[in-house]
Amino acid sequence: MCRSYLFLLFMWFSALTLRAQTISTPVPPPLKQDFEGILSFLSSDWMEGRETGTRGASMAADYVASMMQLNGLIPYGDAKITSNPGSPVNPALTFFQNFKIIRCRVERSSLELIRNSSEGEPVIIFARGTDFLVDPVPFAREAEAAVVFVGYGIEAPGKGYNDYAGADVRNKVVVVVDGYPGHADTTSFAWKKLGRSFENDYATIRKKLKLAERHGAAAVVFVDPDVLNNKINELRSGDGDYENPRHYLPGDTGKLKTPCFTLGTDAILQLLDGTGIDLPGFEKKAAGDLLPASRLIQGKKLRFSVTVSSEEVPIRNVIGMIQGIDTTMNIIIGGHYDHLGVRKGEVYNGADDNASGVAGMLALAKAWSSHPGKPPCNLIFAAWIGEERGKLGSTYYAMHSRLVPRQVSLVINMDMISRSAPEDTGRIGLSIGTLTLNEDLRSLAKKVNSKLEHPFVLELWDVTGATGSDYRPFSDRKVPILTFHAGFPVEYHTPLDDFARVDLHKMEQILKIVNDCLWETLKNPPLRDKH
Predict the structure, then answer these.
(1) Best exposed site among 17, 136, 443, 512 by fewest CB in 10 Å?
(2) Does some domain include residue 316?
(3) Average of pLDDT values for 466-474?
(4) 227 and 344: one domain?
(5) How far apart are alpha carbons 164 and 26 in whole angstroms?
(6) pLDDT of 141-165, one tens digit each?
(7) Are residues 479 and 380 in the same domain?
(8) How far is 429 from 419, CA to CA, in rounded Å?
(9) Domain final residue pick, 310, 337, 359
(10) Exposure pattern of 437-457 as b/e (b: 16+ CB <10 Å)?
(11) Count of the separate structural domains present in the chain
(12) What pLDDT was estimated at residue 2?
């Protein structure tokens, strides 16, 4: 009896002690003063645009790590060598997860149109930078090949649409129209049938390139009808942002190998001259009937060559942690800190994209680390590198993390949370993405939003298969996702995305939703059984 009594007394005392250690009152959300200075500094000219693999990104990483240390986070990056075994918790870790990527640049390239001699000059030599741009590939490539027009270059069997139906494109150059059926007319038959998620599901540039690769195409040539209509600058050459190096993780089996050319106005007109292909007419017809329009372009070939150089570039994620009661379960709160760097002497500060997400992450880290008690599980705070170059940092972390997917209850991602889309004149729009199976998270987001004095108009969408931000490496592993995005402003990916334009009030309200979602999630049992 005595032993049983002592055991029960011990268990009761342990439970009281555990309860006393746990956060028992809601954590107040961050206020403007908690993130305003961080956002301002990260998006200042001092950070040189934070382009992946540059001095600016390295300085930004050091700054983020210093803020994590200031807020009392535990380092949760790489191991370091230490000679003091009696140092504090996790003495052998740093805030940095270091790794290398492969950067490929185009050294030389050429593109020539070869026509039947009866049409006049048999060869037209296009000029790089004026007539075409080319994306780097990991290997040098050259070929002379027939040309096949494949419409939008999309296969969507579940939607009854296939541009490659009946087309033989093996060892040929495929001409692909930018966009997808109905993208320019939301009242069209195609838009209504395909749905607003069609672009992410089937029509991203990467998916079009991978599809052309699977069909054996020698190269892809992109044409944009808006170039012909003068709706955009020719080849989008104004900011120099569209002929970039391409970056890969070493050993990446999914890297693109097929050369991709984008044509300017004159090159499009010369390529399509005499073919009967009318791009505006094609778009209108596809929006109305969803029928493919592939055809071999008779009497013309394209000859191309691409020579590239490659180098290894060291980069780093920045990761800190608040240790929880249950150290086997984790919630990750993150956002990417890289942007586009300096181009043609102008700094692309990336205040909204995505100094806002990182400033929000650090403000949340401060709020939770300064609150008494421990959270029920570990909270991991991450600043990802290389999102603009293909989600490199978050992908590397997901591939090499010490955690398995079942040990992650939730990933919260914040990308562009301080601005609004131009059509959102009331600045009341907020996009929150989740996986299909996580109806509980969608309900939670609606519940939390409804408690605001002025609730947002929510766009709740399914991230399954989408590639837009750093949630992707985790959603692919079926980890529950909450990703927050306030809208695409007109200054997106321009030098005008600076601190003077951010909406601090809207960001404060979004962080209140993020904070309350985190609190409500932690009040419930871990989500491990929902994987």
Answers:
(1) 17
(2) no
(3) 91
(4) no
(5) 55
(6) 999 999 999 999 999 988 889 999 9
(7) yes
(8) 10
(9) 310
(10) ebeebbebbeebbeeeeeebe
(11) 2
(12) 44
- Please indicate, yes or no, if residue 17 is contained in any of the structural domains: no
Task: Give the domain CATH number at 118.
Answer: 3.50.30.30
Clarify whether residues 240 and 338 are in a common domain: no
Note whether 187 and 237 are same-domain residues.
yes
Q: Left (φ > 0), alpha (ψ -120 to 50) or beta: where does 509 sit?
A: alpha
What pLDDT score was predicted for residue 324?
95
Alpha carbon 349 to chain centroid, angstroms: 17
CB 164: neighbour CB atoms within 10 A? 21
Return the closest-CA partner of residue 433 out of 197, 82, 154: 197
Same domain, 82 and 184: no
What average pLDDT score do residues 288-316 get? Answer: 93
Going by the DSSP 8-state scheme, the letter that residue 406 receives in this structure is G
Which amino acid is it at 100? K
First to last CA, the chain: 43
Tokens of 464: 């399954």
- pTM exceeds 0.85, yes or no: no
pLDDT at 12 exceeding the cut of 60? no
DSSP 170-229: TTSEEEEESS-TTTT-TTSHHHHHH-TTHIIIIISHHHHHHHHHHTT-SEEEEE-HHHHT
Q: Are residues 121 and 259 in the same domain?
A: yes
Burial class (CB in 10 A: 0-12, 13-18, 19+), 266: middle
The first and second tokens of residue 22, run together, are 């746990």
